[in-house]
Amino acid sequence: AQTVTQSQPEMSVQEAETVTLSCTYDTSESDYYLFWYKQPPSRQMILVIRQEAYKQQNATENRFSVNFQKAAKSFSLKISDSQLGDAAMYFCAYRSNAGNMLTFGGGTRLMVKP
Amino acid sequence: DTGVSQNPRHKITKRGQNVTFRCDPISEHNRLYWYRQTLGQGPEFLTYFQNEAQLEKSRLLSDRFSAERPKGSFSTLEIQRTEQGDSAMYLCASSLSRLGGVEQFFGPGTRLTVL
């Protein structure tokens, strides 16, 4: 079974600075997807960014980018120019190409200081 | 509103009672998923439908839990004889298989409190 681990329960960043959230996963598969989801307080979860394992190029979405290290099974999220609205729980998630369910990590609470 | 909707948003019940939650997916999304999220944890997969067929169930889904999607549109999740350990946020998500079904869109969740 696949597992996803987020080793940072909480992170803090100053507004306009850059922060990196860590995620590692365990799988024996070679074809899969990785995601970062954002869950603001009392609001629904939204997709921030996704990465296909077969792609070597790291995904980017505006201020959000990932560092995907397939051999190391590492998938970190970098948020540049942090904004107050980035404050939320961030979840790393894994999906096998052969399956449909998402396997989530335990989450990292990001606080943004003005 | 074209997003995933869930009702009710909050439910408080007494131990032993039955509860039912409803999820309306994004229109035309043929895949629907249920997850459970306890406080401070990531969501855990419960079950998955493609159209009206329930194709996958987690071992977390005990006999007291049942999910349906009768016409391939909305879905219901029923918990019978609720226990305090059932207290959690129940999340619904949907996706479109025509696009590979990779991205799942989540609803706001139903928060269940069992007293």
Characterise the protein shown here:
The complex is a heterodimer of chains A (114) and B (115). With 114 residues, chain A is mostly beta strands. Helix content of chain A is 0%, strand content 53%. Chain A has strands spanning 3-5, 10-14, 19-21, 24-26, 32-39, 46-52, 60-61, 64-69, 74-79, 88-96, 103-104, 108-113. In chain A, strands 2, 5, 6, 10, 11 and 12 form a six-stranded mixed beta sheet that branches. Chain A has a four-stranded antiparallel beta sheet with strand order 3-9-8-7, with no helix packed on it. The model of chain A has no long low-confidence stretch (mean pLDDT 95). Chain B has 115 residues and is an all-beta fold. In chain B, strand 7 (65-68) and strand 8 form a beta hairpin. The chains are: A mainly beta (114), B mainly beta (115). Chain A binds chain B through residues 4, 6, 33, 37, 43-47, 50, 91, 93, 95, 99-107, and chain B through 3-4, 31, 33, 35, 40-45, 48, 55-56, 58, 91, 101-109.
What is the strand tally of chain B? Answer: 11
Instruction: Give the SSE order of chain A as H and E letters.
Output: EEEEEEEEEEEE
Biggest chain-to-chain interface with counts: A-B, 22 and 25 residues
Q: Which structural category fits the helices and strands of chain B?
A: mainly beta
Q: How would the global form of chain B be characterised?
A: globular
Q: What share of the residues of chain B lie within helices?
A: under 10%
Question: What is the succession of H and E elements of chain B?
Answer: EEEEEEEEEEE
